[in-house]
Amino acid sequence: MVTVLVQVLLYATASAYLAAFVLFLFYLTGHGKAATAQRFAVALVGLGAAMHASHIVLASLVLHICPIKGIHFALSVVSMLACASFVVMRMRYKIDSLGVIVAPLALTFLVGSQAAHADASAAGRLKSAVLPIHILANLFGEALFVLAFAAAVAYLFAEKQLKKKKVGGVLQRLPPLDVLDRAEHAFLLAGFPMLTVGIITGAMWAERVESGSTVDLWRSLFGYATWALFAAVLLLRAARGWRGRRAAYGTIAGFAFAMVVLVMYLVRSFGEPSAAQSGAGVTEAALSQGERSP
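^ thats the sequence. predicted structure below, dont judge the formating
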């Protein structure tokens, strides 16, 4: 019964994100009642985030897999946090239209989390006092970078439309350029300290847990490159006044590097046996126990 509820929450969350994306498209293109579509789209993102959080908690209890152990749940947590942050931050920055980017990204991360294995073998190795801090800092940082990326993409799109003198249509429903620029900077500024904590704490136990493979080496390099790119965007904005297009391109590049790191984690998870396949039987045993429970 509990496992059925876990699956229902998963499918309901995915459906909410997908429906929100469709409604955001209707809102931006002005089809039908755009204002109504906007309100329902935002509500669906919030509902999806709530169901998503419930799914994470319930699945963790049923499967006995901590969300911070492995990329399997990390992707899911990042997408949930990004949606929750969007719902909260939209009230301050009036960035409802960014949901057309946030919702499909959340859906993609959610689907990706189901494709990845829970790394039970790694879970036994990753024992360190700084591990929870390392993972949680990275998760919150990645969630804020999703919002910064969405604002950067919207900025470049809006600027291009203005250059073409297309002042109607989608552009009417996007925030002004200065609002997008400030929102992007705020999200990046909030996420950067968390990324820094993640880099520092990761370095503290990296030698103990890294296998030294080529994938591990490249993942570390891309992680440092991500930090350097975001640091450069913030530093150049403060020292040289870099704003607008330059900052947007830098933010998008940094986010792309961060996604490369996640993809490399996925590559490793696909290359390693899952808990059940390795003989640990964590998932199947937990599911069987859940099915026998009244």
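DSSP finds eleven helices and no strands in the chain.
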